[in-house]
Known about the structure:
Layout: E1 2-5, E2 11-15, E3 18-22, E4 34-35, H1 45-48, E5 53-55, H2 66-72, E6 78-81, H3 88-95, E7 100-103, E8 109-111, E9 117-123, E10 133-140, E11 143-149, H4 157-160, E12 167-171, H5 186-211, E13 215-219, E14 224-225, H6 247-256, E15 270-273, E16 278-281, H7 286-291, H8 293-313, H9 322-336, H10 339-344, E17 347-353, E18 360-366, E19 371-374, E20 382-387, H11 388-396, H12 403-409, E21 412-416, H13 422-428, H14 433-449, E22 454-457, E23 460-463, H15 473-476, E24 477-480, E25 483-486, E26 491-494, E27 510-512
Parallel strand pairs: 3-5, 5-6, 6-7, 11-12, 12-13, 17-20
Antiparallel strand pairs: 1-2, 1-15, 2-3, 4-14, 8-9, 9-10, 10-11, 15-16, 17-18, 18-19, 20-21, 22-23, 23-27, 24-25, 25-26
FE2/S2 (inorganic) cluster (FES) binds at residues 466, 468-469, 471, 486, 488-489, 491.
Amino acid sequence: xxxxxxxxxxxxIDTAAGSILCDPWVNPAYFASWFPFPDNSLxxxxxxxxxxxxxxxxxxxxxxxxxxxxxxxxxxxxxxxPEYPTSQLEDELRDLGFTSFVRTKSDEVHELDGGLRxxxxxxxxxxxxxxxxxxxxxxxxxxxxxxxxDARPSDLSRFAELGHVHAHxxxxxxxxxxxxxxxxxxxxxxxxxxxxxDRQFDRTWRYIDDLKADHVFPIAGPPCFLDDExxxxxxxxxxxxxxFPDQSVFxxxxxxxxxxxxxxxxxxxxxxxxxxxxxxxxxxxVDEFFADKVxxxxxxxxxxxxxxxxxxxxxxxxxIDVLKELKARIEPLLEESIYLAKGVGGPVRFxxxxxxxxxxxxIVVDFPGKQVRPYADEKVxxxxxxxxxxxxxxxFIDEGDWxxxxxxxCRFSAARIGQYNEFVYAFFKCLSEERLQYAEGWYDEHxxxxxxxxxxxxxxxxxxRCPHLKADLSRFGMVxxxxxxxxxHGWKFDLPSGRCLTSVGHKIRAERAAE
Length: 515
Ligand code: FES
């Protein structure tokens, strides 16, 4: 089996029974904020895109690059489709010209021609990707690989039970706006960033340890930020609170926990994988490449400047009345929302900067009042500050997912009162009837189904499944005093009261175990 690195989360897998191109991403994503790092735009995409199968793990724009799929991927390719609750991924791929689909069933092995076997595990909670993220398992001729991508299943047992995995590709770096965009003192931001960076690595080690593959490939990040306004997010300033460590840092950190089987793929690197061995060749030596990282980024920044400028020029739509349009789009959704609106529980304010950055228009999405209206000098749960042009553009393109556009762009700042509130982001990724209904239904079912089963932890009897995303607390739970931490995403719970200390709602059932 041959694995060719094609940048970020993308790879091409070649077997004697066919080739699979995964998540090709080349064009900038999220308001021209994210670019693939290292640069993959100079690869021979005509050849790479001439494949038998295409796998797009999910709709995040650093995995689903519509322009690239349209121009460079053979429309003869059969799409291996994750089993998602909405048809949006299939619809968008059909719009791009793909006609052949294998609609996989989550967690079921599918036999393709020539003895190629694949399994896609689809994660479908409102907090997984843009409502849906997935991992691809491939087997041919006794060689097994898991492209876990940036999916976060509660464990990897379904893959492990299919037999020893030879290569495991997974995310290790950050892919979020926290904590950089928060209006906090630099020291606090650094401390939160460091915690986050450590947690990302811990989670990666846990997954690696779960699967015990022969070879581990760090993929799916970090992106690079080439706009001068975002340049500080690149991990080139020796800041231990930067959440975007690169593959060379991964190797260093992995070595500290005893990891010796890491394989870094640069765009154009090729790994020949057998059951017994792996031989990888690179277009340039990996060490040298990362030693020259700053020069690589600076060169890319100059080369991509016109692309960023062209994108920026397309955002302004001064004819749009933002308040009126947001009212028309969001109020009907607020009206329908039970769980998300209750979960947010307060007003969320958007401060929109005019084109010259001087004037501010302040709009509130009032979740309890089910209204979009001008800000009325009130306390709000969250406040976001961004350019009016970005919101104009979201309205102009009728964007139904502001996480997959505005928030991931990091082109905003934020402040909040109280804890992180997942419902705020869940709501703003569900700005369409279909998505909102799905999320509401999911929370409804989830509330009812948090299982009655218990487990014993540190002198406490607690519900076995984490109230967040159902991780098994007998594996992921850690009790320190009266606080339980679920190590999957780091959420904390006060056991005597059951209160979640990380997010509103999400109460846990717990009582002291009988002596
Ligand atoms: S499942 Fe996310 S913190 Fe437990």
